[in-house]
Amino acid sequence: GDSVTQMEGPVTLSEEAFLTINCTYTATGYPSLFWYVQYPGEGLQLLLKATKADDKGSNKGFEATYRKETTSFHLEKGSVQVSDSAVYFCALSEANTGKLIFGQGTTLQVKP
Amino acid sequence: NAGVMQNPRHLVRRRGQEARLRCSPMKGHSHVYWYRQLPEEGLKFMVYLQKENIIDESGMPKERFSAEFPKEGPSILRIQQVVRGDSAAYFCASSPRTEKASPLHFGNGTRLTVT
Q1: I want to staple B45 with a disulfide (CB 3.0 to 4.6 A). Which of A104, B59, B61, B107 is the partner?
Q2: What is the pLDDT along chain B (115 residues), one digit of tens a residue?
Q3: Using an 8 Å Cβ cutoff, are B4 and B103 in contact?
Q4: Which of B35, B102, B109 comes nearest A98 by C-beta?
């Protein structure tokens, strides 16, 4: 079945450092891909998405490019802030139901 | 436009009791999904419903768990005879499914503790 694998955390960075969180997927067909962020005690918020190969999703300084050849959707940010500390989830959308299949999540901690 | 509303935020039940979790989707959304998040783990799909219909329940445990989304009112996730292993955060999400990549909008979850 379809699945998503993320790099294990926690990831600890200093403020203004460069961030990469790796995400790869296995799927039949061409799913849409998403990154969601979860702050403590809250639900998930959509961060960005991409619907087809070579699409780049971007929001709040975060970017991810849909790479069909490597089945990847790595999340990047050029300069992280303390307020970016959260858990980040990569997900793919199953075409016939729209349900999301999530990776295990990566905790990011940014220190001042 | 109010977001996805879940209640209660926190629910404590003793072993053997019933737990009822409610979810009101965003206005105009007729597709509801339930997920469970165990401590330090990702979100696991449980069930997908449209108004009055269960579309995909492949992630639901075979016993004690049920879900509904009636024509009027919120979607309900019901857990009968709860056990300690049911302690988790349960999230509801809704979608209009108007396009291929309609994102899911999540509520803030119900945190169930079984004592």
Answers
A1: B59
A2: 579 999 999 999 999 999 999 999 999 899 999 999 987 778 999 999 998 899 999 999 999 999 999 988 999 999 999 999 999 999 999 998 766 678 899 999 999 999 9
A3: no
A4: B102
